[in-house]
Amino acid sequence: MPRYLNIAMGQLGPIQRTDSRSQVVARLCDLMRQAHALGAQLIVFPELALTTFFPRWYIADEAELKQYYEREMPSAATLPLFNLARELGMGFYLGYAELAHEGGAELRYNTSILVDRAGAIVGKYRKVHLPGHREHEPWRRFQHLEKRYFTPGPGFGVTQAFGGIVGMALCNDRRWAETYRVMGLQGAELVLIGYNTPVHNAPAPQHDDLSLFHNALSMQAGAYQNGCWVVGVAKAGLEEGVDSIGGSCIIAPSGEVVARCHTKDDEMAIARIDLDFCAVYKRTTFNFDLHRQPHAYGLIVERKGETLSADGTPL
Ligand code: CDV
User: Fold this and answer.
1) In a domain, 315, yes or no
2) Residue 314: pLDDT over 90
3) I need a labelling partner for 223 at 20 to 30 A (CA). Which of 189, 259, 292, 307 fits?
4) How many structural domains is the chain composed of?
């Protein structure tokens, strides 16, 4: 008997700086209703899905910056989404900026949660690969200050939920093979990823035309090489003058895209996925227990950077 899961993408169009959380939550609720009408059990929303993508600005004023973070989840503004999930019996993945208090310290994370069909938070993930830079770099058309505004999370866990083993990642994580493999080694059958990816890459503008290609390439490779489903969901379109890619898609363990969004606006798209379809990959080509050779992979955890420069000089 296949383990089917009806999974939806709740892609968002832009969120402008003046849009309130309540306005955004109303959009998320609308996408959730659309997904439920088509039989979805789980909907995946983007990274930092409650506000505009604030790391694009250098914000010196602490009080202003803190307005972008959530102190609690659910909050008064996000409670309608949790209530609707419970009413419809729908789960969701949601990305947001988290202000946490740990051991007397205040820490800031780029976070996602997994909420089950009863409206309970059953998983939390804090983004590991924070791209961009720490200091103000006025030469850029816009900033990408994730390294300044967030602390890296501790790692990639998985959660038993929705009848399978579910992992989470956020945006830049999807470009790193390690992200999927660490979850693959924990048996992940479904990896959920929200993202905000500007078309323009300031340090490498020659990549701009390849943004959508690299998006699909990374997630298709991750799915295939770990025999898991991958669902990537964008916040897309022209937000405060910065254009971001769409390209939200659901990818099978074969590496094939089985559903995709085609706009750069709020858009819901759905697929029925069979979690048992992972097994044929996990038991054959990517049977880790049989074929992996950890003795040859030591450098992956021993080293952070490369061992040789382009001219062969040891680093
Ligand atoms: N939000 C992100 O992590 N964005 C990065 C951009 C800066 C390249 C990404 O990997 O899509």
Assistant:
1) no
2) no
3) 307
4) 1
